[in-house]
């Protein structure tokens, strides 16, 4: 049922990673449609989860070294995390993203793009809820 949506999501994630790894920036053409779609979908189905995106982006706005593309990417990822597991999942995703970027920076001995780490963070934060929701019977 969700096969087509899942394919689009995977293609989008791959595009974000490839572009950010290559150019060290995530263009508006990748972030703004995702941001608009996530906000619109959340407002139509579960408005409070928008706060997850606002919270993640807000944390990045007060921090240093985070680019505008990462701030815009934080909104849809925060909404997804909040929808899947509440504010705890958002905070877990932020923490994992920071840790992954820090480890990559140490291993690579220099600056690394943060977008791929954000995607890893949200996957780790959302996966337990997805697995728990999988029905093997009916």
From TrEMBL:
Superkingdom of source: Bacteria
Segments forming domain Prepilin type IV endopeptidase peptidase: 7-101
GO cellular component, one term: membrane
TM region positions: 35-62, 74-98, 118-137
Alphabetized InterPro entries for the sequence: Prepilin_IV_endopep_pep (IPR000045)
Keyword Acetylation belongs to the record: no
One GO MF term attached to the UniProt entry: aspartic-type endopeptidase activity
Keywords noted in UniProt: Membrane, Methyltransferase, Transferase, Transmembrane, Transmembrane helix
Biological process (GO), any one: methylation
Protein name in the entry: Leader peptidase (Prepilin peptidase) / N-methyltransferase
The species this protein was found in: Corynebacterium pollutisoli
